[in-house]
Specification:
heterodimer; A: about 425 residues; alpha/beta; five-stranded parallel β-sheet; 13 helices; about 20% strand; globular; B: about 160 residues; seven-stranded mixed β-sheet; about 35% helix
Chain lengths: ~425, ~160
């Protein structure tokens, strides 16, 4: 029996010819990642190991993006702690405010992940880099510490679910709608301990930004990783952003999957996930009348340039509803600059939205857009758990940038068709 | 190793945001985190939990954010063990890595109610519901994970193996 993409990458990094699902392996790491919330704990654990140096100064990335620019004294102390660690260990890829962005948008942009890599990150959305044909997965701080010290991590080789994509997305519909549709279909533990492997002729119609958004939310189905077959679009992205050597792995024709789903992209509708789980999905025509207080467009899921362009195309020449606070945050400085040069930020400000510096802030209820009791937000983020964006009795509705922008204008959740 | 305590039981998909809300993640001090453990799901948890208590939950426990602060908060609140039908994978890794005992056992979860007195023997994987007089067997951990658990977590394991 053949191997899946993920199994092949793991086998190669474990120095093995073949691996099978359930097998425990130790794999060599190409990148170890952490942020300002998880790295302080990792640094404490790293110090307990008793090694002086990190395994490779160029293969660790630390991105203070969650509570930055520092929201309070405790957060400032945490950032100071990891900054000093990064400096003392000579960590090359530490990204200070001004260079930093939301980690999962920044790391691919900086060319730090390429096809065939094995990446762990002390952040659950590390699975985003599967869009590049890498094995990439979220871990905790102790795994990050061990990874920084040894350059290795232990894994249980996962089974995989295959998503065979065909057709093309309709107008307004994006990768976000596809992944919300899939999570609605298989549930928040539908891919527990497994890989989600995306391939098929429909792949060519999905942009890299669509793929990043989809791989990003694999964790929301419980998956260990999401991974896309590498095609010309992937390689074009890699050539544009990285000089690292890469290896393209393709699943064997006789690879075994625990399930195979055929997804016709032309049948996917605009999709919204209702509180308090990403699996509570409804298509836009089933939403009903949901008035909102806040719109958040950005995050590691949907803070990329295409997301900004989509939001601007809807907000152009229109006004945000007087009852709505619209907060737009480009995910990196590069995206911010590009949005500035393309005139998108002007459109946002003229529409009455605010534009924020890159930060994870509102997505996890950290800062820069917290909800009061009983308030509702439409967000292009990835989680709508109880209390995720603020008060435990607030509500988050997950949607695409198109739906979020349209909803900002209408003051309730609507399709762009209703405001254009 | 054996533990015994009263059960505090929860449902499906208990996520790490409710185990420890992000607004408290500007510290990594276990005692501080424990003060807010389960706050957004069960505000009374911190008042009722006693050292040795056992947390029982249904499927996909610990889903969402990778924050290790979640198992740290549970451990520091005095919980001796978490039994669930299934665990989300990052929480599963984190719990083993920091030395918070966890067991997957759907039968035990079905047979245990909130407030029951339960005993767990990690060497045999036996879960005894003292209140109801029933016994369940959880699957043993693979040998490699048992080694991590024996060394009180991943850091201890690495130190033991680098000597």
């Amino acid at each position: 029996m053949g191997m899946t993409m993920t199994q092949k990458i793991l086998a190669a990094h474990a120095g093995l010819e073949k691996v099978v699902p359930g097998q425990l392996i130790k794999a060599k790491l190409d990148l170890v990642l952490g942020n300002d919330v998880t790295t302080p704990v990792a640094v404490n654990e790293f110090k307990k190991i008793g090694v002086e140096e990190v395994f490779d100064k160029t293969k660790i990335a630390i991105v203070p993006d969650h509570f930055t620019p520092n929201k309070d004294i405790k957060s400032a102390e945490q950032c100071k702690y990891i900054r000093e660690f990064a400096r003392s260990k000579g960590i090359v890829n530490y990204f200070e405010i001004g260079q930093m962005g939301i980690e999962h948008a920044l790391i691919p942009e900086k060319g730090l992940v390429v096809p065939g890599d094995v990446v762990i990150g002390a952040d659950s959305h590390t699975c985003t880099y599967g869009a590049l044909g890498a094995f990439s997965t979220g871990v905790g701080s102790t795994d990050m510490a061990a990874g920084m010290a040894t350059g290795e991590a232990w894994f249980k080789v996962p089974e995989a679910i295959k998503f065979n994509l065909k057709g093309k997305l309709n107008k307004w519909v994006s990768g976000k709608d596809v992944i919300l549709h899939i999570i609605g279909m298989i549930g928040v533990d539908g891919a527990l301990y497994k890989s989600m492997e995306f391939s098929g002729e429909g792949l060519s119609a999905l942009s890299m930004d669509d793929r990043f958004a989809m791989a990003n939310m694999a964790i929301e189905a419980g998956a260990k990783n999401g991974i896309f077959e590498v095609d010309e679009k992937t390689l074009e992205y890699v050539r544009e952003h990285s000089t690292k050597e890469y290896t393209v792995y393709k699943a064997d024709d006789d690879a075994e999957y625990s399930a195979v789903y055929d997804i016709d992209l032309s049948q996917i509708k605009l999709t919204v996930a209702f509180p308090h789980l990403p699996e509570n999905t409804r298509t836009i025509d089933e939403v009903g009348d949901i008035e909102i207080d806040q719109v958040v467009i950005g995050s590691c899921t949907n803070g990329r340039i295409e997301d900004m362009r989509m939001a601007a195309s809807i907000l152009k020449g229109k006004k945000v509803h007087p009852h709505v606070r619209a907060i737009i945050f480009p995910a990196t400085q590069q995206i911010y600059l590009q949005a500035l040069e393309e005139g998108l930020l002007k459109i946002f400000v003229e529409a009455g939205a605010v534009v924020s510096t890159p930060t994870c802030g509102p997505c996890l209820g950290g800062h820069m857009g917290i909800l009061a009791k009983g308030e509702r937000a439409v967000a292009t983020t990835n989680r709508n758990f109880v209390g995720r964006m603020g008060h435990p009795e607030s509500e988050v509705y997950l949607a695409s940038p198109a739906v979020a922008a349209a909803s900002a204008i209408a003051g309730k959740i609507v399709s762009p068709e209703e405001v254009m | 190793m054996k533990v015994q305590g009263k059960v505090i039981k929860y449902g499906d998909n208990v996520d790490t945001d409710v185990i420890i809300p992000a607004r408290y993640l500007n510290t990594s001090d276990p005692k501080e985190l424990a003060k807010h453990c389960m706050e957004d799901l069960d505000a009374d948890f911190v008042n009722k939990v006693r050292p040795g208590d056992i947390m029982v939950a249904r499927k996909n426990f610990g889903c969402g954010s990778s924050r290790e602060h979640a198992p740290i908060a549970i451990k520091a609140s005095g919980v001796s063990c978490v039994i669930a039908e299934t665990f989300a994978r990052i929480f599963y890794r984190n719990a083993i890595n920091i030395g918070l005992p966890i067991l997957e056992c759907p039968e035990a979860v079905n047979g245990i109610d909130d407030g029951d007195e339960v005993k767990v023997d990690f060497d045999t994987g036996e879960i005894t519901n003292i209140t109801k007089g029933t016994v369940y067997k959880s699957l043993p951990f693979p040998e490699f994970m048992q080694e991590i658990i024996k060394n009180n977590g991943l850091i201890g394991y690495i130190k033991a193996n680098s000597k």
